[in-house]
Amino acid sequence: MEFTAKELARILKGTVDGDPNAKARSFAKIEHGKSGSLCFFANPKYEQYVYTSKASILLVNKDFQPTAKVEPTMVRVENAYTALADLLKYVADSKKTNKRHRSLSSPVPFSASMGKKVFIGPHCSIGRNVKVGDRTRIMGNVFIGAGTTIGEDCIIYPGVSIYPGMKIGDRVILHSNCVIGSDGFGNAPQPDGSWEKIEHLGNVIIGNDVEIGSCTTVDRAPMESTIIGNGVKIDNLCQIAHNVQIGDHTVMAAQCGIAGSTKIGKYCILAGQVGIVGHLTIADHTTFCAQAGVIGNVRKEGEVLFGTPAIDRLSFLKSYAVFKSNGKQ
């Protein structure tokens, strides 16, 4: 990768402030910038590094006004953070070959349907009647159960397990060792105190533009479907139980756990280690801060909730002040 400031301005629809021929060959954090690197500045608390950075090119917001000399050539854009994300995607897309390939160690049954330019890595197991869309990439050691449908332009990373009968949309990214469609934790108590397993015959439906992190598990439903909406982003080490529904464009950080049959609205944010009990309904645009424990429905849109049990932000801060002062007595 090598870009001039002028090329970056064209790609990112920005303007150049400095040498248009300045070149960058790598990315770096602003505090680690050196000659030949591209950095970005978006958070005001890092402004000190703008004036000490040795980077060749610096992405900044178009309204940034420096208070001292800036050595790097600045490329001014509408939003530096968003522009960096767009540039990283541009670089990643340019490296994709979209070349058809099928490893000899990954036999595909005659009943399976593979789209154009599908890549299948080594030691994959693909079941009967599987359908895979155009340009999808399936890396090594992936299991795809019979009757599963996978859309176009997906990336299935090594070690992913997809149980039979799952439905996965377009442009979905499944990271290493995530599991789609394992049985939910359903067991019926018996008179003698033992537990009888409840069979899970439903499936998981994943929408378009979803990304699911490494070692995350999405359980299938005993009946009907567990549903992950369009644009949902789920981090590593999360647990999504049977019959859960997650609305479009909700994001979930690592180590969250959602119990069975809970419905989470659209555009929600779950910070790390949030736990939600089963059979709840969560309104759109709800934010749960880290380690929130949710035991009741959230009916009002746009709330920000803290603590265990989770309560609204203002009530939590008042309560915390009491906890803190009592602890000093």
Secondary structure topology:
Elements (H helix, E strand, L loop, with lengths): L2 E2 H8 L2 E3 L5 E2 L1 E2 L9 E5 L5 H4 L6 E5 L11 E5 L2 H16 L5 E2 L10 E2 L4 E2 L4 E2 L4 E2 L4 E2 L4 E2 L4 E2 L4 E2 L4 E2 L4 E2 L4 E2 L4 E5 L3 E3 L5 E3 L5 E4 L4 E2 L4 E4 L4 E4 L4 E2 L4 E2 L4 E2 L4 E2 L4 E2 L4 E2 L4 E2 L4 E2 L4 E2 L4 E2 L4 E2 L9 E3 L4 E2 H15 L2
Parallel strand pairs: 4-5, 5-6, 6-7, 8-10, 9-12, 10-13, 11-14, 12-15, 13-16, 14-17, 15-18, 16-19, 17-20, 18-23, 19-24, 20-25, 23-26, 24-27, 25-28, 26-29, 27-30, 28-31, 29-32, 30-33, 31-34, 32-35, 33-36, 34-37, 36-38
Antiparallel strand pairs: 1-3, 2-7, 21-22, 38-39
Mean pLDDT: 93
Q: What's the total count of β strands?
A: 39
| C-alpha termini separation | 60 Å
| CATH architecture label of the largest domain | 3 Solenoid
Any low-confidence stretches, pLDDT <50, length ≥5? none
User: How large, in whole angstroms, is the Cα Rg?
Assistant: 24 Å
- Spatial strand order of the main sheet: 8-10-13-16-19-24-27-30-33-36-38-39
The largest β sheet comes out as: 12 strands, mixed
Indicate the percent of residues in helices: 10-25%
Structural class: alpha/beta
* Number of discrete helical segments: 4
State the CATH class of the largest domain.
Mainly Beta
What is the third-level CATH name, the topology of the largest domain?
A: UDP N-Acetylglucosamine Acyltransferase, domain 1
Query: How would you describe the oligomerization state of the chains in this entry?
Result: single chain
Quick one: overall form? flat
> What is the CATH superfamily label of the largest domain?
Hexapeptide repeat proteins
Which strand-content bin applies to the residues?
Answer: 25-35%
Question: How many domains comprise the coordinates?
Answer: 2
